[in-house]
Specification:
This protein is mostly helical. The chain has six helices and no strands.
């Protein structure tokens, strides 16, 4: 079991949160790679590849922040991300056709995306309170990246994937 360092100030809370977020992004990167390699609709596959680029960008930014702030001592996993990924895998395994699987995958990614919006927004607020302007901008940009991806995921769901998943077998007729 991991030992969480003592948290006695906002700065330490930010450091722990960022360590967990770095772990979350790494978990997500590996998972997206496996999800993209499965059979998906082309628009979803392209969007997932774009999201993979966003995740990789966030990993680099978090690594820079950790290096500059000397946060290498914390190696904490992210149980929330692990749970989101496990739940998605469980549901995806039960999907009976590609259209349903695509809708399920998109919904799972959007749930993860909403979690990340909240974490990055909180990190930006903490950094602002701590007068860490550069970090605050970095976390705010990550939050904006996630919000942009959320809009793109919603658009694809509303205009294509959910419509196909309503009655997938009717489309084949």
């Amino acid at each position: 079991m991991e030992t969480i360092p003592s948290i006695s100030c906002l700065r330490q809370l930010l450091d722990v949160d960022i360590s967990r977020m770095k772990s979350a992004e790494l978990q997500l990167k590996n998972t997206i790679i496996s999800w993209v390699s499965n059979e998906n609709s082309m628009p979803l596959r392209l969007l997932m590849n774009d999201y993979l680029d966003v995740v990789e960008k966030h990993i680099r930014l978090l690594e820079i922040f950790c290096k500059e702030e000397k946060i290498s001592a914390y190696d904490l996993s992210n149980g929330v991300m692990k749970t989101y990924i496990a739940e998605a895998a469980e549901k995806l395994a039960c999907c009976s056709c590609p259209e349903i699987k695509d809708a399920c995958l998109l919904a799972a990614v959007q749930q993860i995306n909403h979690y990340k919006i909240s974490v990055y927004g909180t990190a930006a607020a903490f950094a602002g309170a701590l007068r860490l302007q550069k970090a605050g901008l970095l976390f705010h940009q990550a939050e904006l990246d996630e919000k942009d991806m959320d809009e793109r995921l919603s658009y694809l769901a509303e205009h294509e994937l959910n419509k196909k998943a309503i009655a997938p077998f009717a489309l084949a007729s």
